[in-house]
Every structure is written in structure tokens, then in C-alpha cells.
Amino acid sequence: MLKATAAGRIARDAEIRKTQSGDTVCSFTVATDVRNGREKDTVWLRCSMWGKRGEGLAPYLLKGASVTVTGDLSFSEYEGKPQFDINVSDVDPFLGAKRETGSAAQNGADASG
After folding, report:
1. In the chain, how many H helices and how many E strands?
2. What integer pLDDT is reported at residue 1 of this predicted model?
């Protein structure tokens, strides 16, 4: 088993879905920059977090938010390009997503008044 820890920014808001067997999975993508001298490349990590924990964290896993994920890493290939998947066992969402919507709900205030 290959464990990985990666820090980066969430590429799009987390999505919650149910499998045919009724299991809940939270899916999100983390973009992390890798530097090689002066060159920079972005690595995209497809992340999955299963169960109630993923369901509870999904509202905080918003596009632009900084996050660190740890979990089991697997590789596949799609159209000749490597795909990196992490079955997340631990996630640390940093405070302060980059999103600036101006919405009271996004700012933690009560939207009703």
C-alpha cells in the first residue's frame, strides 16, 4: 500500500453521491504545484472520502480552499496521461477559501437577518 500526503487547493466544490449499495462518498479534486528548477507543473489528485466523515466535511471543501489530504494513493492512466487517486483517510481544510461571493452564508453569518 502506498500512502501519500499532499497539500494544494481544491479545484471545484466537493460533491456528495451515493453508490448503488447506499454508501456515501465525497469526491473532490486537489491541485498541487510541483516545481523542477524554474519549471512548474500542476498535479491533479482525485480524492474520495467515504462515509459520514466525508459528508460532514463536504460543506468546507470549496473551490479555492487550501487543504492537506493523506490517504492511500493509486495510479491509473487515461488517454496516455497518469491519473492519481487518493482514498482519503485524513483531511485538514485550512481556514479561508479563496472564494469571495459576498454571501452572508459563505461568511458564516446568519442569512435570515
Report:
1. 1, 6
2. 78
- In terms of Cα–Cα distance, which of 1, 106, 10 is closest to 49? 10
- Angle CA 87–98–18, to nearest 5: 35
pLDDT of residue 94: 74
What is the 8-class DSSP label of residue 53? Answer: H
What is the pLDDT, as a whole number, of residue 78? 85
Rounded to 5 degrees, what angle do the CA atoms 88, 90, 96 make? 105
pLDDT at 89: 95
Low-confidence ranges of the chain (pLDDT < 70): 95-113
Distances (CA, A) of 36 to 33, 41, 42, 80: 10, 8, 11, 22
Q: What is the Cα–Cα distance from 75 to 96, expressed in whole angstroms?
A: 30
Euclidean distance between CA atoms 14 and 26, whole angstroms: 6
- What letter does residue 65 receive in the DSSP assignment? -
Answer whether 88's CB lies under 8 Å from 49's CB.
Answer: yes
Nearest 5°: phi and psi at 83? Answer: -115, 135
